[in-house]
């Protein structure tokens, strides 16, 4: 593809990663055709607020739009019609049409995992789209009994917002130490303590055996130990899966996502992938990794655009994620492994105002911070330069 003239780029996925490809192509002067395909009817919007400000009703759809006023990014939109298959560089859509490009970019992201026991039950929700957030906001009335299954970023943010809206919230997690795989056990305990400090119950080391219901609506969550937690609303936040089912017969190599090289190229010539759906080689991460964070989606999309224009990028940044819970902004960069040493270098974790560093064999490998942005930013820069 390096010497082939690209006159038409077909991007499958109209969220941040796909939109980043389109914007980056146009800002670099690409004058060819760009087709942007999305399964939702909306033009690209920001997803992080879906569990926070949008869910709380503080922002509307216009307020989370990724389109910048007065910015000219000419594309042909194909919205509300998902892609169903890919053959070579031809994308077939659910409405029977197909689009062929000189290059195809897969940016379909992920889909929330669901509970089989929840099939068809009213009151059970996942969160991925504005429609999902709208339904949750309507359900989070004062006094509503809400059970959130999963104490990861999304589950914790939803619990925080539900509590803010006046619901009575309980969070469940199968792990004895939720988020320890991200922050390490000691600092994970600091972050998850925010739940209890804000009147939200956190039950750890528990597994869900099933859901109880009445008249087709959920009425409770049954735990493996026999306890039943009454629930008017259940939010399932047990992770996501790469949205790759439409690629089953494409010839594109799949392994927990779309496998790509350091520039974003898949196993099929002319087909690229970026964002949450892509699994790329990382020296920092110790092998093939897939990252599900906002900053990665934006930066990976820009890197793939560079490759499409003939200047491939060896993409391997330091992952960065932020989360807002109960009014506390938590920022994290890097990779943590068991055995890494942790040191609080600024502030006090007990006040949820601190910065902690992680080192491996004396080398800085990660930084965690809350409410001391200056120190965090300085150490994040040091980490990126390492």
TrEMBL record:
Residue span(s) of domain FAD/NAD(P)-binding: 8-301
Pfam family, one: Reductase_C
Keywords: FAD, Flavoprotein, Oxidoreductase
Signal peptide: none
Domain of life: Bacteria
Cofactor: FAD
Sequence ranges assigned to domain Reductase C-terminal in this UniProt record: 320-384
InterPro entries hit by this protein: FAD-oxidoreductase/Apoptosis (IPR050446), FAD/NAD-bd_sf (IPR036188), FAD/NAD-binding_dom (IPR023753), FAD/NAD-linked_Rdtase_dimer_sf (IPR016156), Reductase_C (IPR028202)
PANTHER family, sorted: APOPTOSIS-INDUCING FACTOR 1, RIESKE DOMAIN-CONTAINING PROTEIN-RELATED
UniProt protein name: FAD-dependent oxidoreductase
Protein species of origin: Cryptosporangium minutisporangium
Lineage, broadest ranks: Bacteria, Bacillati, Actinomycetota, Actinomycetes, Cryptosporangiales
């Amino acid at each position: 593809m390096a010497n082939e003239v690209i006159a038409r780029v077909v991007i499958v996925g109209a969220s941040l990663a796909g939109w980043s490809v389109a914007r980056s192509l146009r800002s670099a002067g690409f004058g060819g055709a760009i087709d942007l395909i999305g399964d939702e009817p909306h033009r690209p919007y920001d997803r992080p607020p879906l569990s926070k400000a949008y869910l709380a009703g503080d922002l509307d759809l216009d307020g989370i739009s990724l389109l910048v006023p007065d910015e000219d990014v000419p594309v042909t939109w194909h919205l509300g019609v998902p892609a169903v298959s890919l053959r070579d560089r031809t994308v077939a859509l659910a409405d029977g049409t197909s689009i062929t490009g000189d290059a195809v970019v897969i940016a379909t992201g992920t889909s929330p995992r669901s509970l089989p026991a929840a099939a068809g039950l009213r009151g059970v929700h996942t969160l991925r789209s504005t429609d999902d957030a709208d339904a949750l906001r309507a359900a989070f009335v004062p006094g509503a009994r809400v059970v959130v299954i999963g104490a990861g970023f999304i589950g914790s943010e939803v619990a925080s917002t539900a509590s803010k809206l006046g619901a009575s919230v309980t969070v469940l997690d199968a792990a004895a130490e939720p988020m320890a795989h991200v922050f390490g056990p000691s600092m994970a305990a600091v972050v998850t303590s925010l739940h209890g400090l804000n009147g939200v119950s956190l039950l750890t080391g528990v597994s869900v055996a099933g859901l109880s219901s009445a008249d087709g609506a959920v009425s409770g969550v049954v735990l493996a130990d026999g306890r039943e937690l009454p629930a008017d609303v259940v939010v399932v936040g047990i992770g996501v899966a790469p949205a790759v089912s439409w690629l089953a017969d494409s010839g594109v190599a799949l392994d927990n996502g779309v496998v790509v090289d350091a520039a974003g190229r898949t196993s099929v010539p002319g087909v690229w992938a970026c964002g949450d759906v892509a699994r790329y080689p990382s020296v920092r991460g110790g092998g093939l990794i897939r990252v599900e964070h906002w900053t990665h989606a934006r930066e990976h999309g820009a890197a793939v655009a560079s490759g499409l224009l003939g200047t491939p990028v060896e993409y391997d940044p330091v992952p960065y994620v932020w989360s807002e819970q109960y009014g506390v902004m938590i920022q994290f960069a890097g990779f943590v492994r068991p055995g890494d040493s942790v040191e609080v270098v600024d502030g006090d974790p007990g006040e949820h105002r601190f910065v902690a560093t992680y080192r491996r064999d004396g080398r800085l490998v990660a930084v965690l911070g809350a409410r001391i942005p200056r120190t965090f930013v300085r150490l994040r820069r040091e980490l990126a330069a390492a």
